[in-house]
Model the fold of this input.
Amino acid sequence: MPPEQDKAIKLWHSASWEYERTMLIRFMQVLKNAT
Done:
């Protein structure tokens, strides 16, 4: 696999992790506000 492709995949993984983490934090805040 070319290094550029490897770099792109790593970038995509970290981006999707950031997105999931943000959604999780937002979800927890909504749960806190609901109580």
Observations:
- The chain has a mean pLDDT of 92.
- The radius of gyration is 15 Å.
- The chain is about 90% helix and 0% strand.
- The helical segments are 3-34.
